[in-house]
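Help needed: design a sequence for this.
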């Protein structure tokens, strides 16, 4: 077995995580480094020292400055992006901007995030549109993925939603190739990139998506909640904020970002998270996390009797970004959301280890994340204790 990567010196000390818990679930909510926590607290202190000045003096300019740093790092035109709370919020904004009619189709894959699927179902129920789910096999190659989606396009397709990195199955999707196929068919593409910022290099560049939204608080060390929504120029005028406020006529992105007295300190502090990542070394962080996630998948997989690479689900294209890996659980385990929650809680309580348990096609999966604060012995602990819990 390939040995695990060497820890990045001092990285664990940047986080305030409980040392008694092995936190192998960075992919769900992220973890905020201490320097970023302090940066946000300074912003909150500034806000409370003079709220009127904070909200009225230069807030749009400060948000634009922060947005410029982050969008440039992600490979996006700063003028094309807007801060939103999270990926789900951005996707709901897009869905509600569509002038859908009865018979129109929205395509997703069966790897889509649950909250997004619910949002699509809700807008379809309201408008009479049809939610069409395209099945993608877990071991499907990139060409198969593109072909399956292309074959699903019809003259009624009004939007395709694809995860850049899937949540339930930790699959890196070939979104650049999917984007090219969608453009050839005239189908607008929305990329759910909840996990992409910080995990993939320049995840927006070259996709050519009409819409792209990615969380900053998962793999880019931002406070919660923070995300960037990138929108093609010809789509921006149709986006309306869910709340009408004083900046409604200012246009994109100000009308989405400036909504009364909402706390924007997470957005303003987000560049500090990028600074932390650059200080550790962006390539070094990605290489460490990718290697450690692969080690965790192998060692826990061996404990579950998954002894060959054929037994382990593929990470998909761009495997250098695979900082999350999944392992199939025994048949009959965690086959629905309720049983998955119960199993995750048992692992947390009995082993003092936090993991994600996902369900896909009525099959349970263990999802492991790797971040700079994780050590190989945490995955070794899980490998020893998990068979007993199961």
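Sure. Designed sequence:
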């Amino acid at each position: 077995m390939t040995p695990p990567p060497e820890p990045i010196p001092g990285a664990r000390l940047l986080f305030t995580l409980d040392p008694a818990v092995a936190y192998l679930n960075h992919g769900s909510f992220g973890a905020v480094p201490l320097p970023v926590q302090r940066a946000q607290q300074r912003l909150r202190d500034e806000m409370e020292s003079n709220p009127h000045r904070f909200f009225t003096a230069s807030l749009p300019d400060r948000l634009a400055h922060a947005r410029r740093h982050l969008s440039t790092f992600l490979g996006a035109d700063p003028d094309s992006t807007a801060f939103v709370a999270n990926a789900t919020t951005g996707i709901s904004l897009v869905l509600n901007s569509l002038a859908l009619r009865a018979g129109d189709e929205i395509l997703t894959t069966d790897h889509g995030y649950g909250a997004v699927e619910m949002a699509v179902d809700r807008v379809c129920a309201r408008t009479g549109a049809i939610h069409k789910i395209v099945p993608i096999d877990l071991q499907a190659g990139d060409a198969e993925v593109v072909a399956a989606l292309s074959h699903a396009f019809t003259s009624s397709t009004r939007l395709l939603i694809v995860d850049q990195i899937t949540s339930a199955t930790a699959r890196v999707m070939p979104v650049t190739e999917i984007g090219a196929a969608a453009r050839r068919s005239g189908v607008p593409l929305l990329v759910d990139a909840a996990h992409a910022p910080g995990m993939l290099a320049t995840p927006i560049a070259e996709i050519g998506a009409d819409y792209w939204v990615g969380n900053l608080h998962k793999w880019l060390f931002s406070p919660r909640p923070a995300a960037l929504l990138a929108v093609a120029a010809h789509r921006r005028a149709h986006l309306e904020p869910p709340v009408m406020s004083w900046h409604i006529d200012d246009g994109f992105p100000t009308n989405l970002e400036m909504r009364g007295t909402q706390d924007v300190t997470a957005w303003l502090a987000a560049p500090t998270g990028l600074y932390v990542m650059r200080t550790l070394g962006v390539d070094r962080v990605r290489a460490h996390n990718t290697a450690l996630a692969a080690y965790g998948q192998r060692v826990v997989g061996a404990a579950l009797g998954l002894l060959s690479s054929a037994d382990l689900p593929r990470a998909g294209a761009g495997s250098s970004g695979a900082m999350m890996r999944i392992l199939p659980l025994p048949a009959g385990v965690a086959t629905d959301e309720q049983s998955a929650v119960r199993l995750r809680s048992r692992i947390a309580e009995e082993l003092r280890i936090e993991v994600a348990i996902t369900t896909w096609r009525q099959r349970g999966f263990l999802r492991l994340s790797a971040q700079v604060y994780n050590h190989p012995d945490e995955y070794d602990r899980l490998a020893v204790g998990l068979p007993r819990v199961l």
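Residues 316-321 have pLDDT under 50 and may be disordered.
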